[in-house]
Amino acid sequence: MRVLVTGASGHIGSAVVPELIQAGHEVTGLARSDAAAAAVKALGAQVRRGDLYDTDGLREAAADADAVVHLAFDHETMFAGNFAAAAAADLAVAQAFGDALAGTGKTLIGIGVKPTGDAHLDAVISANPRSAGTRAIAALTDPGVRAIIVAIPPVTHSDHDKHGFIPILIKIARDTGVSGYVGDGANRWPAGHTLDVAALYRLALEQAPAGAQLFAATEEGIEVREIAEVIGRQLGIPTVSIPAEQAADHFKGFPFITMDITMPNADTRKLLGWEPTHPGLIADLEEGHYFRTD
Fold first, then answer.
1. Are 190 and 217 in contact (CB under 8 A)?
2. Can you give the pTM of this predicted structure?
3. How far apart are the first and last CA of the chain?
4. How far is CA 93 from CA 96, 103, 141, 168, 220, in A?
5. Side-chain-side CA neighbours of residue 35 (13 Å)
6. Which band of pLDDT confidence, cut at 50, 70 and 90, is reported for residue 102?
7. Where are the alpha helices (DSSP H) in the chain?
8. pLDDT tens string 148-177
């Protein structure tokens, strides 16, 4: 297939692109800068210059492809404090792709979790402004698009990971001199190795039915205390419980430290025959690459 990938030079995209190319697909990566273009070219993909705010260009690029894998998000705007604006841009991208692909039967793979029918869970999902783009892509199945949604685990780990949950925790631990968790640290984070997630994307492109909701966690939930303990050992600093009333101050800029979710993957494995082969999170942390400073 001819596949357009947004976010092709990013953490997940830089693994998805070679995975697709090795499987025989013709990949074009969207690049908004010279550096991104060079990275996409180095991965073996063709380059299309553009960004998430050029919706006319995105429509044209999608129309030229057999499938679109949408991974990009305006993280700079989000981290600058305007998550709503970044989410609005993402929704506009989803709508642009929908305009280009409606009625074609072509594939569009987005990120997120579709509405479940459980009022409480759906309220939690909808509280994330980015969910609007997910819903827009999921709804495209009716106008004749093979729309597929992939839930990415909050901890997607490997040596590709430079800005995710684990690098943030390590930086906080270095800055404070302790590796912390909140309370008993029994809250859980789903995890998946970047290369296993990339393999799932290839299987989704090649096999998943229209309307599929896929879960890319290879580990359904790992206690944050266990993660903190490995970080403490690797850095040679104490691992400590941070009282809940002190968490906001200790984990400045990281509100997800108390997040507690699981991400069951049995249905996804069965549907696609997906068999993760790379190290789990704790083993990956023990390899030490997250802690190198050179």
1. yes
2. 0.95
3. 39
4. 5, 18, 16, 28, 30
5. 1
6. very high
7. 13-22, 34-42, 55-63, 75-79, 83-101, 119-126, 131-138, 165-176, 194-207, 224-235, 244-250, 266-272, 281-286
8. 999 999 999 999 999 999 999 999 999 999
